[in-house]
Design goal:
mainly alpha
């Protein structure tokens, strides 16, 4: 089963020259938790997404991927 990519946290960190370790320290979270967010194995809460967007100085919408398109049958 393919993991559905819901967030762009990993990409946003790279674009801002930050690491998962840095984000974990800023949020007071475990690095493993942030790693799971970055790999889309689990998702942060909406509250945490807003905190991440503030830390990276980006719009929270930029942390989310677009909805996958489905083909009409």
């Amino acid at each position: 089963m393919e993991i559905q990519k819901i967030n762009r946290i990993k990409i946003a960190l790279i674009e801002n020259g930050k690491t998962g370790k840095w984000l974990a320290e800023q949020l007071g979270k475990n690095e493993a938790t942030v790693s799971r967010w970055c790999s889309n194995k689990m998702q942060p809460s909406l509250e945490t997404l807003f905190k991440i967007s503030e830390l990276l100085n980006i719009d929270v919408k930029d942390l989310l991927t677009g909805r996958p398109k489905t083909q009409d049958k």
